Amino acid sequence: MIRDNLSVHLIARPHGEPNLENFSFVKSACPPVPPGGLIYETMFLSVDPYLRGRMNDVKSYVPPFQLGAPIESGFVGKVLESENEKFKSGDLVFGMGPWSHFTATDGKNLSRLPPEFPPSHWLGVLGMPGLTAFVGLFDIGQAKRDETVVVSAAAGAVGSLVVQLAKQTGCKVVGIAGGKAKCDYVKNDLRADFVIDYKNENVLKSLVERVPDGVDVYFDNVGGEILSAVLSHLKDHARISLCGMISEYNAKEPPPGPNLRPLLSKKASIRGFIVSEHWERRAAFVAEVAPRVMAGEITCREDVINGLENAPAALFRVLSGKNFGKQIVKVDAL
Ligand SMILES: NC(=O)c1ccc[n+]([C@@H]2O[C@H](COP(=O)([O-])OP(=O)(O)OC[C@H]3O[C@@H](n4cnc5c(N)ncnc54)[C@H](OP(=O)(O)O)[C@@H]3O)[C@@H](O)[C@H]2O)c1
Question: Is the pTM of this model over 0.85?
Fold first, then answer.
């Protein structure tokens, strides 16, 4: 069966903030099922900050997107036709795939979704952002009961789970987020002990007021000035889990680095990590977190935008802080 397809391609690399001129919407015919493969229809796309890095032509931990080729991200889809013995028509699958309505694939890198949760959860709280929170807080940050944990972008996909896991471990938690609505959510729904609205407060001053004894673990999602502020208020042997630098992703020039002297005087350690090197922790993560999501002990907020044609705008939302929760695109069929 011939299907009219639509895909979102990268056609120009952004310098600074991306805009619609960096993308094109390409119509084509979806190829037939490859021998031994399958065709799936995309249901949900994950929109993540790291996609901005892949729009640059620089060597990184993931290769750049190619000009004239579709953007790719995590997705959940439904199998429409299959010659692959592992999948049948109607199966829900997830993996990495193009921003397209339909995709023909050999199916090698797809997994079948367990039926218990809303499918989009496998892109957020139970997916890559959730695993990032788990690995970054416990393996990298070594957070323990009674310690003080600070997390930035605390209302977002990664940060919101960091707040809740740290609280449920018995830590004192400070969430940093932009604006009253997000701070209220972090305090009232995620149950952080304290919040700091970095858009309306002096972060260092507020941090010193909220937790005068200092910080044991800083889970850094943003870099820049907020990282500099938290570095000035560490406890001895603090750990900084360097997860993301979203304040710098659209920067045209490398910004000046923070002053590292506090790391020396506090005998602190700082460690970057990339979640894709920690997939072996996925089973432990799902075993620990999925039952708590099922029991309603962990809450997750998803910010869902409808329509494949709105996927670039969804990325702009994440990069400008307009998303409130895990940014997802619900892809409508043609
Ligand atoms: N190391 C890894 O393997 C790994 C894996 C996944 C994600 N990450 C990183 O984790 C971070 C969070 O990712 P996510 O998927 O959970 O996104 P998210 O938090 O759901 O969305 C991004 C949030 O970042 C905040 N932000 C944007 N610009 C900012 C700025 N200039 N200063 C401070 N905050 C800003 C915004 O929240 P506010 O409105 O509160 O500003 C925005 O909502 C990102 O840096 C991402 O690259 C790393």
Answer: yes
